[in-house]
């Protein structure tokens, strides 16, 4: 069985049509049909249900596709690891991170590293905290920059810095002129928040619990920029990062520092428990860890 036949099978599973898959792969339709016949003969069972001119993966095909995708991924990684053994500065790193870090922290890290290893390339994937953790755990990501610290013991966590949190309120709000505010003072407020899978929401929920506050959340969203705009529109208040991309606060919103103990989120880098999987990733991982700042809280 050749790796290209596995690639053809995965493409066929996505297209569900021999002609469309053959065009996408730039091969002749009979060549693809013969490859599928060989594959099904080898495994001893049909992998697709045929319905008119379409193909649909059956339960055997679903199992085979999962393993085919992993096999293709492993072969790609093998090629990358061999390439980095030849030249540790050459290779591609797949880096996951929280969306909000993409406007300040990630560009700063990459600019600094590019000066050291200009031949290293990156595939960048911004996502929610749970997705970043799962990506590193499953091997889809080489490293992840996230918050809070994952509970997963199969991952290696290195804290990098603490990012203060503040309360974002509409202009003219009763707390807008305050120098500091405690969460316990906010029982009467309408809260706006990111959804539960986002790291900032998880940190904010723990802060509120520690303060004895059950926030009245009236709206949830998936983007920090949307959250800030909702506050500026007067729809409620929100816990947001006080540094980093805080300059993105829209007109009509005021950031008030939180006085609660632990009002920060710890940013860290995660890697597999066994360490980075290749030399090029290991070097970048070491660089990120070298940028860690002493904890102040």
Low-confidence stretches: none
Order of helices and strands: HHHEEHEHEHEEEHEHEEEH
Q: Mean pLDDT, rounded to whole units?
A: 89
Number of domains: 3
* CATH hierarchy, class of the largest domain: Alpha Beta
| Structure summary, number of beta strands | 11
Number of helices: 9
Known CATH architecture of the largest domain:
3-Layer(aba) Sandwich
Commentary on this structure:
The protein has helices at 3-15, 18-25, 29-43, 59-86, 105-114, 129-138, 199-210, 224-232, 279-290; strands at 48-51, 54-57, 91-98, 120-127, 143-146, 155-170, 190-194, 216-221, 238-241, 253-257, 264-272. By secondary structure, it is an alpha/beta fold. The protein has three domains: 3-84, Orthogonal Bundle (Arc Repressor Mutant, subunit A); 88-160 and 266-290, D-Maltodextrin-Binding Protein, domain 2 (3-Layer(aba) Sandwich); 163-264, D-Maltodextrin-Binding Protein, domain 2 (3-Layer(aba) Sandwich), CATH 3.40.190.290. Strands 3, 4, 5, 6, 9, 10 and 11 form a seven-stranded mixed beta sheet that branches. The protein has a two-stranded antiparallel sheet with strand order 1-2. It has a two-stranded parallel sheet with strand order 7-8. Helix 7 links the parallel strand 7 (190-194) and strand 8 (216-221). The radius of gyration is 24 Å and the shape is elongated. The termini are far apart. The model has no long low-confidence stretch (mean pLDDT 89).
């Amino acid at each position: 069985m050749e790796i290209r036949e596995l690639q053809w099978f995965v493409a066929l599973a996505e297209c569900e049509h021999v002609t469309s898959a053959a065009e996408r792969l730039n091969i002749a339709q009979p060549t693809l049909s013969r490859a599928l016949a060989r594959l099904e003969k080898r495994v001893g069972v049909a992998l697709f249900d045929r319905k008119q001119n379409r193909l649909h993966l059956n339960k055997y095909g679903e199992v085979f596709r999962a393993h085919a995708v992993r096999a293709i991924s492993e072969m790609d990684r093998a090629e990358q690891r061999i390439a980095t053994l030849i030249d540790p500065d050459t290779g591609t790193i797949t880096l996951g991170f929280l969306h909000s870090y993409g406007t300040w922290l990630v560009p700063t890290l990459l600019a600094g590293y590019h000066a050291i290893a200009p031949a290293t390339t990156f595939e960048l994937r911004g996502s929610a905290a749970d997705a970043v953790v799962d990506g590193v755990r499953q091997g889809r990501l080489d490293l992840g920059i996230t918050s809070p610290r994952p509970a997963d013991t199969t991952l290696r966590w290195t804290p990098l810095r603490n990012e203060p949190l503040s309360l974002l309120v509409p202009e003219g709000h009763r707390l807008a002129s305050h120098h500091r505010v405690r969460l316990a003072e906010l029982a009467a407020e309408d809260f706006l928040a990111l959804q539960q899978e986002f790291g900032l929401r998880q940190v904010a929920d723990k802060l509120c619990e520690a303060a004895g506050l059950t926030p009245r959340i009236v709206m949830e969203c998936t983007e920090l920029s949307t959250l800030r705009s909702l506050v500026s529109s007067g729809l409620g208040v929100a816990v947001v990062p006080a540094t980093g991309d805080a300059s993105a606060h829209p007109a009509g919103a005021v950031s008030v520092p939180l006085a609660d103990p632990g009002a920060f989120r710890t940013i860290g880098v995660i890697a597999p428990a066994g360490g980075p999987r290749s030399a090029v990733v290991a070097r970048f991982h070491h660089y990120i860890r070298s940028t860690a700042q002493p904890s102040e809280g």
